[in-house]
Design a protein that fits this description.
Elements: E1 3-17, E2 20-36, E3 57-61, E4 68-71, E5 75-76, E6 79-80, E7 85-86, E8 97-101, H1 106-109, E9 113-125, E10 127-131, E11 136-143, E12 148-152, E13 158-161, E14 166-173, E15 201-206, H2 212-221, H3 223-241, H4 247-268, H5 273-296, H6 299-321, H7 326-344, H8 351-355
Helix pairs in contact: 2-4, 3-4, 3-6, 4-5, 5-6, 6-7
Amino acid sequence: PKTLRFKANIKPERRAYGIYEYVVYTAPLEAAGTFQVPKSPSEFGENVQRIEWDKAYFAIGIADLKAIVAVNNLLWNGASAMSHAPGTKAAPVSATGFHAPLSLNPAKDAGAERAFSLSLILRGSGGIHFTSVGETTRIELAGEWPHPKFSGAILPEKRIVGDERFSAVWNIPYLSRSYPQIDTIDSSGNAPLMKGIGNFTAGVELFEPVQRYTQTERAIKYAILFIALTFIALLSFELVFHLRLHLMQYGLVGIAMVVFYLVLLSLAEHTSFLNAFLAASTVSALMNGAYMTAAMRSLFKGGIIAALLALLYGFLYTLLQMEDHALLIGTALIVFAVGILMFLTRNLSTGEAEKA
Protein backbone atom coordinates (compact mmCIF):
# COMPACT_ATOMS: atom_id res chain seq x y z
CA PRO A 1 0.00 0.00 0.00
CA LYS A 2 0.94 3.63 -0.51
CA THR A 3 -0.49 4.63 2.86
CA LEU A 4 -1.35 2.31 5.72
CA ARG A 5 -2.89 2.91 9.14
CA PHE A 6 -3.42 0.44 11.95
CA LYS A 7 -5.52 1.41 14.94
CA ALA A 8 -6.08 -0.92 17.90
CA ASN A 9 -7.45 -0.63 21.42
CA ILE A 10 -6.02 -3.37 23.63
CA LYS A 11 -8.24 -4.67 26.44
CA PRO A 12 -6.20 -6.88 28.82
CA GLU A 13 -7.71 -9.52 31.07
CA ARG A 14 -6.11 -11.65 33.78
CA ARG A 15 -6.71 -15.40 33.66
CA ALA A 16 -5.86 -18.09 36.18
CA TYR A 17 -4.58 -21.59 35.43
CA GLY A 18 -4.27 -23.49 38.70
CA ILE A 19 -2.01 -21.40 40.94
CA TYR A 20 -0.61 -19.47 37.96
CA GLU A 21 -1.90 -16.21 36.53
CA TYR A 22 -1.34 -14.82 33.05
CA VAL A 23 -2.54 -11.89 30.96
CA VAL A 24 -4.48 -12.14 27.70
CA TYR A 25 -6.07 -9.39 25.65
CA THR A 26 -8.79 -8.65 23.13
CA ALA A 27 -7.93 -6.05 20.49
CA PRO A 28 -10.48 -4.59 18.04
CA LEU A 29 -8.33 -3.56 15.08
CA GLU A 30 -8.91 -1.26 12.14
CA ALA A 31 -6.68 -1.33 9.07
CA ALA A 32 -7.09 1.28 6.35
CA GLY A 33 -5.05 2.90 3.60
CA THR A 34 -4.60 3.34 -0.11
CA PHE A 35 -3.01 1.46 -2.99
CA GLN A 36 -1.43 3.13 -5.99
CA VAL A 37 -2.48 0.56 -8.58
CA PRO A 38 0.39 -0.12 -11.07
CA LYS A 39 -0.19 1.36 -14.48
CA SER A 40 1.96 -0.91 -16.62
CA PRO A 41 3.80 -4.25 -16.30
CA SER A 42 7.15 -2.44 -16.23
CA GLU A 43 6.39 -1.20 -12.70
CA PHE A 44 6.64 -4.80 -11.50
CA GLY A 45 10.07 -5.38 -13.02
CA GLU A 46 11.81 -6.24 -16.24
CA ASN A 47 10.60 -9.85 -16.39
CA VAL A 48 6.87 -9.06 -16.10
CA GLN A 49 5.15 -9.07 -19.51
CA ARG A 50 1.49 -8.61 -18.60
CA ILE A 51 -0.87 -8.00 -15.68
CA GLU A 52 -3.78 -10.37 -15.04
CA TRP A 53 -6.16 -7.78 -13.62
CA ASP A 54 -8.99 -10.26 -12.97
CA LYS A 55 -6.76 -12.38 -10.68
CA ALA A 56 -5.71 -9.59 -8.30
CA TYR A 57 -6.30 -10.15 -4.59
CA PHE A 58 -5.84 -8.34 -1.29
CA ALA A 59 -3.89 -10.20 1.43
CA ILE A 60 -3.50 -9.74 5.20
CA GLY A 61 -0.70 -11.60 6.97
CA ILE A 62 -1.22 -12.69 10.61
CA ALA A 63 1.49 -14.62 12.40
CA ASP A 64 -0.88 -16.62 14.64
CA LEU A 65 -4.19 -17.49 13.01
CA LYS A 66 -5.63 -18.67 16.34
CA ALA A 67 -5.74 -15.01 17.36
CA ILE A 68 -8.53 -14.23 14.87
CA VAL A 69 -11.96 -13.83 16.50
CA ALA A 70 -13.91 -12.05 13.76
CA VAL A 71 -13.20 -10.36 10.41
CA ASN A 72 -15.47 -7.99 8.52
CA ASN A 73 -15.54 -7.91 4.73
CA LEU A 74 -12.93 -5.79 3.02
CA LEU A 75 -14.13 -2.43 1.71
CA TRP A 76 -12.35 -1.65 -1.57
CA ASN A 77 -12.89 1.76 -3.11
CA GLY A 78 -16.04 2.19 -1.01
CA ALA A 79 -17.63 -1.12 -2.02
CA SER A 80 -17.56 -4.49 -0.29
CA ALA A 81 -15.21 -6.99 -1.88
CA MET A 82 -15.69 -10.74 -1.98
CA SER A 83 -15.52 -12.70 1.27
CA HIS A 84 -12.13 -13.74 2.64
CA ALA A 85 -10.45 -17.07 1.99
CA PRO A 86 -7.68 -18.80 4.02
CA GLY A 87 -4.04 -18.24 3.07
CA THR A 88 -2.23 -15.19 1.78
CA LYS A 89 -1.14 -16.75 -1.56
CA ALA A 90 2.14 -14.91 -0.97
CA ALA A 91 4.11 -17.23 1.31
CA PRO A 92 7.52 -15.56 0.80
CA VAL A 93 6.08 -12.32 2.17
CA SER A 94 3.72 -13.70 4.82
CA ALA A 95 3.18 -17.41 5.29
CA THR A 96 -0.11 -17.27 7.24
CA GLY A 97 -3.19 -15.08 6.93
CA PHE A 98 -6.11 -14.66 4.55
CA HIS A 99 -6.99 -12.95 1.28
CA ALA A 100 -9.95 -11.49 -0.60
CA PRO A 101 -10.23 -11.63 -4.43
CA LEU A 102 -10.38 -8.31 -6.30
CA SER A 103 -11.53 -7.93 -9.87
CA LEU A 104 -9.69 -4.87 -11.18
CA ASN A 105 -10.60 -3.09 -14.38
CA PRO A 106 -7.53 -1.92 -16.32
CA ALA A 107 -9.50 0.88 -17.94
CA LYS A 108 -10.56 2.35 -14.58
CA ASP A 109 -8.06 1.10 -12.02
CA ALA A 110 -4.70 1.25 -13.81
CA GLY A 111 -2.64 4.07 -12.31
CA ALA A 112 -5.46 5.11 -9.96
CA GLU A 113 -5.31 5.37 -6.17
CA ARG A 114 -7.80 3.11 -4.43
CA ALA A 115 -8.77 3.21 -0.76
CA PHE A 116 -9.39 0.16 1.41
CA SER A 117 -10.52 -0.53 4.97
CA LEU A 118 -10.87 -3.63 7.08
CA SER A 119 -11.85 -4.28 10.71
CA LEU A 120 -11.21 -7.40 12.75
CA ILE A 121 -10.94 -8.60 16.34
CA LEU A 122 -7.84 -10.36 17.64
CA ARG A 123 -7.07 -12.16 20.87
CA GLY A 124 -3.58 -12.86 22.13
CA SER A 125 -1.16 -12.64 25.01
CA GLY A 126 2.13 -10.95 25.67
CA GLY A 127 1.87 -8.22 23.05
CA ILE A 128 1.01 -7.18 19.52
CA HIS A 129 3.29 -6.01 16.68
CA PHE A 130 2.74 -4.66 13.17
CA THR A 131 4.90 -4.83 10.07
CA SER A 132 5.49 -1.60 8.17
CA VAL A 133 4.49 -2.25 4.55
CA GLY A 134 3.19 1.17 3.48
CA GLU A 135 5.17 4.00 1.96
CA THR A 136 3.97 5.71 5.10
CA THR A 137 2.73 3.50 7.92
CA ARG A 138 0.88 4.94 10.91
CA ILE A 139 0.26 2.77 13.97
CA GLU A 140 -2.04 3.95 16.75
CA LEU A 141 -2.18 1.77 19.85
CA ALA A 142 -3.97 2.33 23.14
CA GLY A 143 -4.79 0.06 26.04
CA GLU A 144 -5.77 -0.27 29.66
CA TRP A 145 -2.33 -1.27 30.96
CA PRO A 146 0.02 0.75 33.22
CA HIS A 147 3.31 -0.90 32.18
CA PRO A 148 3.60 -1.04 28.37
CA LYS A 149 6.92 -2.08 26.88
CA PHE A 150 7.32 -0.55 23.42
CA SER A 151 9.42 -2.87 21.30
CA GLY A 152 10.34 -3.76 17.75
CA ALA A 153 12.60 -2.17 15.16
CA ILE A 154 11.43 1.38 15.84
CA LEU A 155 10.06 3.18 18.91
CA PRO A 156 6.88 5.30 18.93
CA GLU A 157 6.98 8.92 17.88
CA LYS A 158 4.51 9.89 20.61
CA ARG A 159 3.53 8.03 23.74
CA ILE A 160 1.54 8.68 26.90
CA VAL A 161 1.73 6.29 29.84
CA GLY A 162 -0.61 6.84 32.77
CA ASP A 163 -1.47 4.92 35.93
CA GLU A 164 -4.19 2.91 34.21
CA ARG A 165 -3.84 3.47 30.46
CA PHE A 166 -1.33 4.10 27.67
CA SER A 167 -1.37 5.34 24.10
CA ALA A 168 1.32 5.48 21.42
CA VAL A 169 1.69 6.57 17.80
CA TRP A 170 4.22 5.49 15.17
CA ASN A 171 4.74 7.25 11.83
CA ILE A 172 7.12 5.10 9.80
CA PRO A 173 8.39 6.12 6.33
CA TYR A 174 9.40 3.36 3.93
CA LEU A 175 12.93 4.80 3.74
CA SER A 176 13.47 3.44 7.28
CA ARG A 177 13.49 -0.14 6.06
CA SER A 178 15.47 -2.26 3.60
CA TYR A 179 12.70 -3.75 1.40
CA PRO A 180 10.80 -1.94 -1.41
CA GLN A 181 7.09 -1.56 -2.15
CA ILE A 182 7.01 -3.95 -5.11
CA ASP A 183 8.60 -7.36 -5.61
CA THR A 184 7.93 -10.45 -7.69
CA ILE A 185 7.90 -14.10 -6.69
CA ASP A 186 10.40 -15.95 -8.86
CA SER A 187 10.21 -19.48 -10.27
CA SER A 188 11.72 -20.88 -7.05
CA GLY A 189 8.92 -19.38 -4.96
CA ASN A 190 11.07 -16.63 -3.44
CA ALA A 191 10.61 -12.88 -3.20
CA PRO A 192 14.27 -11.85 -2.88
CA LEU A 193 13.69 -8.13 -2.28
CA MET A 194 11.26 -8.82 0.57
CA LYS A 195 13.82 -10.73 2.61
CA GLY A 196 13.66 -9.63 6.26
CA ILE A 197 10.21 -8.09 6.01
CA GLY A 198 9.05 -9.94 9.12
CA ASN A 199 11.85 -8.45 11.24
CA PHE A 200 10.82 -4.82 10.76
CA THR A 201 7.96 -4.51 13.24
CA ALA A 202 6.71 -2.04 15.83
CA GLY A 203 4.37 -2.67 18.72
CA VAL A 204 3.89 -3.10 22.44
CA GLU A 205 4.23 -5.83 25.05
CA LEU A 206 2.13 -6.05 28.21
CA PHE A 207 5.02 -6.00 30.67
CA GLU A 208 4.57 -6.89 34.36
CA PRO A 209 7.46 -5.34 36.34
CA VAL A 210 6.44 -6.75 39.74
CA GLN A 211 5.61 -10.26 38.62
CA ARG A 212 6.58 -12.74 41.36
CA TYR A 213 8.85 -14.87 39.18
CA THR A 214 10.60 -11.76 37.88
CA GLN A 215 11.18 -10.51 41.43
CA THR A 216 12.49 -13.91 42.55
CA GLU A 217 14.87 -14.00 39.58
CA ARG A 218 16.13 -10.51 40.48
CA ALA A 219 16.65 -11.63 44.09
CA ILE A 220 18.75 -14.61 42.93
CA LYS A 221 21.07 -12.24 41.04
CA TYR A 222 22.15 -10.79 44.40
CA ALA A 223 22.71 -14.23 45.99
CA ILE A 224 26.51 -14.35 45.60
CA LEU A 225 26.88 -10.84 47.01
CA PHE A 226 24.75 -11.54 50.09
CA ILE A 227 26.34 -14.91 50.84
CA ALA A 228 29.81 -13.35 50.47
CA LEU A 229 28.91 -10.51 52.86
CA THR A 230 27.66 -13.06 55.40
CA PHE A 231 30.87 -15.10 55.17
CA ILE A 232 32.96 -11.93 55.56
CA ALA A 233 30.93 -11.04 58.65
CA LEU A 234 31.57 -14.50 60.14
CA LEU A 235 35.28 -14.18 59.37
CA SER A 236 35.32 -10.80 61.10
CA PHE A 237 33.71 -12.40 64.16
CA GLU A 238 36.50 -14.98 64.19
CA LEU A 239 39.19 -12.30 64.06
CA VAL A 240 37.63 -9.84 66.50
CA PHE A 241 36.43 -12.33 69.12
CA HIS A 242 39.26 -14.88 68.60
CA LEU A 243 36.88 -17.66 67.59
CA ARG A 244 37.40 -20.62 65.28
CA LEU A 245 34.57 -21.82 63.03
CA HIS A 246 34.75 -25.07 61.11
CA LEU A 247 34.50 -25.12 57.31
CA MET A 248 31.43 -27.32 57.68
CA GLN A 249 29.77 -24.55 59.67
CA TYR A 250 30.49 -22.04 56.91
CA GLY A 251 29.03 -24.49 54.39
CA LEU A 252 25.83 -25.04 56.35
CA VAL A 253 25.32 -21.29 56.75
CA GLY A 254 25.69 -20.93 52.98
CA ILE A 255 23.23 -23.75 52.32
CA ALA A 256 20.71 -22.17 54.69
CA MET A 257 20.99 -18.90 52.76
CA VAL A 258 20.50 -20.71 49.46
CA VAL A 259 17.38 -22.40 50.87
CA PHE A 260 16.00 -18.88 51.40
CA TYR A 261 15.45 -18.52 47.64
CA LEU A 262 13.72 -21.89 47.39
CA VAL A 263 11.37 -20.98 50.26
CA LEU A 264 10.75 -17.58 48.65
CA LEU A 265 9.77 -19.05 45.28
CA SER A 266 7.59 -21.85 46.68
CA LEU A 267 5.65 -19.49 48.97
CA ALA A 268 5.33 -16.76 46.30
CA GLU A 269 3.28 -19.17 44.18
CA HIS A 270 0.61 -19.30 46.90
CA THR A 271 0.67 -15.88 48.54
CA SER A 272 1.85 -12.33 47.90
CA PHE A 273 5.53 -11.71 47.26
CA LEU A 274 5.82 -9.56 50.41
CA ASN A 275 4.43 -12.31 52.67
CA ALA A 276 6.66 -14.90 50.98
CA PHE A 277 9.73 -12.68 51.40
CA LEU A 278 8.99 -12.00 55.09
CA ALA A 279 8.54 -15.71 55.79
CA ALA A 280 11.65 -16.81 53.87
CA SER A 281 13.90 -14.13 55.41
CA THR A 282 12.61 -14.91 58.92
CA VAL A 283 13.34 -18.61 58.47
CA SER A 284 16.85 -17.91 57.14
CA ALA A 285 17.74 -15.35 59.84
CA LEU A 286 16.44 -17.52 62.71
CA MET A 287 18.10 -20.70 61.43
CA ASN A 288 21.49 -19.07 61.01
CA GLY A 289 21.15 -17.05 64.22
CA ALA A 290 20.30 -20.14 66.28
CA TYR A 291 23.08 -22.15 64.62
CA MET A 292 25.70 -19.45 65.28
CA THR A 293 24.48 -19.10 68.88
CA ALA A 294 25.30 -22.78 69.42
CA ALA A 295 28.54 -22.66 67.40
CA MET A 296 29.89 -19.55 69.17
CA ARG A 297 28.33 -20.49 72.52
CA SER A 298 26.96 -16.98 72.86
CA LEU A 299 23.39 -15.78 72.53
CA PHE A 300 24.63 -12.22 72.03
CA LYS A 301 26.86 -13.11 69.09
CA GLY A 302 24.21 -15.33 67.51
CA GLY A 303 21.71 -12.50 67.87
CA ILE A 304 24.10 -10.14 66.08
CA ILE A 305 24.30 -12.60 63.17
CA ALA A 306 20.49 -12.88 63.02
CA ALA A 307 20.12 -9.08 63.13
CA LEU A 308 22.75 -8.69 60.40
CA LEU A 309 20.89 -11.12 58.14
CA ALA A 310 17.59 -9.37 58.83
CA LEU A 311 19.22 -6.08 57.84
CA LEU A 312 20.62 -7.61 54.64
CA TYR A 313 17.23 -9.04 53.67
CA GLY A 314 15.65 -5.65 54.35
CA PHE A 315 18.12 -4.07 51.92
CA LEU A 316 17.41 -6.83 49.40
CA TYR A 317 13.66 -6.19 49.49
CA THR A 318 14.29 -2.47 49.03
CA LEU A 319 16.43 -3.22 45.97
CA LEU A 320 13.72 -5.42 44.47
CA GLN A 321 11.13 -2.66 44.74
CA MET A 322 13.33 -0.14 42.94
CA GLU A 323 13.89 -0.10 39.18
CA ASP A 324 15.62 3.21 38.54
CA HIS A 325 17.82 3.38 41.67
CA ALA A 326 18.66 -0.29 42.31
CA LEU A 327 22.33 0.12 41.28
CA LEU A 328 22.73 3.20 43.48
CA ILE A 329 21.23 1.50 46.55
CA GLY A 330 23.25 -1.68 45.92
CA THR A 331 26.48 0.31 45.70
CA ALA A 332 25.61 2.14 48.92
CA LEU A 333 25.05 -1.23 50.62
CA ILE A 334 28.48 -2.50 49.58
CA VAL A 335 30.21 0.71 50.70
CA PHE A 336 28.38 0.57 54.05
CA ALA A 337 29.23 -3.12 54.60
CA VAL A 338 32.92 -2.61 53.74
CA GLY A 339 33.06 0.42 56.06
CA ILE A 340 31.60 -1.57 58.97
CA LEU A 341 34.02 -4.45 58.40
CA MET A 342 36.96 -2.03 58.27
CA PHE A 343 35.83 -0.51 61.54
CA LEU A 344 35.49 -3.89 63.27
CA THR A 345 38.92 -5.06 62.11
CA ARG A 346 40.80 -1.77 62.64
CA ASN A 347 42.71 -3.02 65.70
CA LEU A 348 43.83 -6.38 64.30
CA SER A 349 47.55 -7.00 64.38
CA THR A 350 49.93 -9.65 63.04
CA GLY A 351 51.82 -12.10 65.22
CA GLU A 352 55.13 -10.26 64.65
CA ALA A 353 53.62 -7.01 65.88
CA GLU A 354 52.35 -8.64 69.07
CA LYS A 355 55.82 -10.14 69.86
CA ALA A 356 57.48 -6.79 69.27
